[in-house]
28S ribosomal protein S22, mitochondrial (Loxostege sticticalis), 379 residues
Amino acid sequence: MTLLFSKIAQNNIKTVITRNNDLQILTISYRKLSIVPSLYDGKEDPAPKFFSSNVQVLLKRLTRPDFNKVFRKRTNSGLAVLRTPKYKFLTNEELEAEILKANKKADVLLQMPPVVKVHQPVDDVLSKDPALVGYDSAKYLFTDITFGIANERRLIVERDPDGTLRHCGHDVRKRLNQTYFPIPGRKIKEPMMFTNEDRFNSLLDRQEYEFLLDRACLQYEPDEASYQRITSITYQHIDMNKSYDLLRSTRHFGPMTFYLTWHQSMDSLMLELLQSGAVREGVLLAALRQALLGDVANGDNAQALAQQILPTPIQLAKPERLTEEDIQLDNKCVECIEEYIVSNSAMKSQQELALQGFREHYQQLIELSRGLKKAHGNA
């Protein structure tokens, strides 16, 4: 079976394997297993929970904003050259004002793409006029091109050859809106990076995740099936490769975390947080699951603990020294994570091992911090 699997993978073909009279279908695509996208097309609409203030705060904190990454230099085709940095001498008051401006600018750059349900097909017939049957073999499209009207509210109708007058479908509306009111960067025809599987998989293999997601936000609307298919595959590829850091401090980390939690596949992310020592963010992730799914054991405790964590500074690196308040809070976080692992985790052994490693390292840090305090006479 191993040799057969290798041969199939090398040939990049689809095949059917029959074994013990049971039909087993194995799909190999571009030397890796295919990823099945999951869309927000169920009965429940994720938008109300995504836009709730509690979930927004948790997602923004889990993004772990780092100004060094948020304001990093990026290639921009709209600029001929990179802008020259400016250096200023500031007073303390002026410095605080500049920091406030930087925080507001970072909030804009980290604004998350919305998570909504896939739109339903449009089948709204306005009238039927049998007198127009046979008048022409082509459809007629009528578009209201009045300025100042939102594209989603613009009146666009079509007259079918059989005389039926109906509202246009989403794809036709999008093409006509782009024709009369073009959005810069959006193409009427889908880019080949999304329609050509070779190119799409090449970008995934090169881990160009942020570029893919930025381009998808520009080309599609959040309620389009194509947008959710592309983002779903990208999120799953990131999850499979544990490449979460590539999206941290970007506007896409929150929607990815929401996606993984909504589909109950956030245990790999939880494991990565425990392995990196971010137990506080682990509690925030458990609180997010409780807010979305409501199935976390002692979930109210996780949400209450999250409210204690949110006012504390964001930990971009492991702390070198600890206060007694930090020790008490982190101990509560460890207890909360233990309850989550026992009751909800699908990766119990790996997460328990990661949590044990955190305990050992944290105990050494506690002894070091208390030893320094004692040496300085602050015990």
Summary: The longest strand covers residues 22-29. Residues 266-379 form one domain. Strands lie at 14-19, 22-29, 32-33, 125-128, 140-143, 156-159, 164-167.
